[in-house]
Write a structure and sequence with these properties.
single chain; alpha+beta; two-stranded antiparallel ribbon; 5 helices; 2 strands; 18% strand
């Protein structure tokens, strides 16, 4: 039952989708490259297993090297063990086309500050002109009322006196 408990712990650790955020608090990658691939697998041929086993038996039969796992009934003591536990795995790229996905900041801080400055300049400039026009109107009105500035000395409708 210890084997089942270890397997259960392994299964929970490697199938927990929330675990990725806990283990790796990384931001989204700025650059990602994906390849389209197809996987093909097959068992090892008996001729290949018989030919390779004498050369690698000393390495793969010892559990301390990490290949044999007696607790999971994975042993490499005979050619039959290789036929039972080893397979040929091929990864084939379906096309030479690759997809590259990049995340690029297109609206940076300098653009934001430029836009804010432009809008403020427009509103403050319009306000400044409005204030100057109002002051000009007040000064012109006071000068016209107090000093008769800007009014004609005689009315063009009256004509000149003494003319026939």
């Amino acid at each position: 039952s210890g084997i089942n408990a270890e397997y259960g712990e392994w299964y929970n650790n490697f199938t927990d989708t929330e675990r990725a955020g806990k283990v790796c608090p990384c931001a989204t990658a700025c650059k990602e490259i994906r390849y389209e691939a197809q996987i093909s697998s097959s068992s090892v041929s008996p001729v290949y297993a018989a030919g390779i086993f004498p050369n690698i038996q000393k390495i793969i039969s010892l559990p301390e090297n990490g290949y044999s796992k007696p607790e999971f009934d994975i042993l490499y003591n005979t050619t039959d063990d290789i036929l039972k536990n080893v397979m040929v795995l091929e990864v084939l790229f379906t096309s030479m086309r690759t997809s590259e996905i990049r995340e690029i900041i297109s609206y940076g801080m300098s653009n934001l500050l430029g836009d804010i400055g432009g809008v403020l300049g427009l509103f403050l400039g319009a306000s400044l002109f409005t204030i100057l026009e109002f002051l000009q109107f007040v000064v012109y009105s006071i000068a016209r009322y107090c000093f008769n500035v800007g009014q004609p000395k005689h009315s063009p409708l009256e004509g000149e006196k003494g003319a026939i």
